[in-house]
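Running this now, will post back.
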Amino acid sequence: MGPEPTVPGLRPLAPIPTALAPTGALRAKIGAVLFDIYGTLFISASGDIAAARSESPQGAALAQLLARFRIQEAPEAVLARFFGAIAADHRRAQAAGVDQPEVIIERIWQSVLGWESRSKARDFALAFELLANPVAPMPGLSITLAALREARLKLGLISNAQFYTPLLFSWFLGADSAALGFDPQLVFYSYRWGVAKPSPRLFQAAAAACERQGLPPAAVLYVGNDICNDIRPARQAGFQTALFAGDRRSLRLREDDPACRGVRPDLVITELPQLIDRCLTGRTGRPAG
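Update: finished.
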């Protein structure tokens, strides 16, 4: 494992096992594997970057952060303005026709705190995120990426994200995403597009990018932890799908969501290295469930 972040707020995390077991098989041979990040490649205390916004740091931890940045306001007042600014930004984007809006988090903080400095707002946003949504690499992440990379499979990312999300790879694995084998043409972060999962737009863009590299959607496997945000839009884009069920925090089966009724992944995996065998042997068969 590479060097850990030196920023404050990091604490050790381990996945919490789920009741699911590995199952399923690929429907066809694949040439690319695209991943979600939060709750799939990285343990997330909230399970997802969006969920972290509703589980923000409270009390002493947030008060200390505000004091560090010389913000003389009650934590509750700052949080109220923060969530209000996000909601207002979403309303503006929805009025312009965006189905699942994504914010630029440092702009939100600039507005909330009245700062002109983008750099200062980014420093605060990063510290706030580490309190709200602690992360750590999923067990087996490095060996899984290495094996897929050595097999010459294309690697990509489709994830709800902010500017600090790409930093996770350097912090924990000692290399940026490109050095780890992720093709920059197959990386789709929500903050860069102004739209978040489960909007089909990111998946459609990824499918088009794969097609340009000679990979039809059926030759692409998408791996995520959420039936609604990951499996459903990936299947709609024509991808094969793998549900990552290795951490109870992040597993989202969405059994009460009518829109996800009957949506089944091709694979269920409970550890990332299980992808190695399933992707490299070319075994095909019936989907999970």
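The CA atoms of residues 29 and 281 lie 9 Å apart. More later if anyone needs it.
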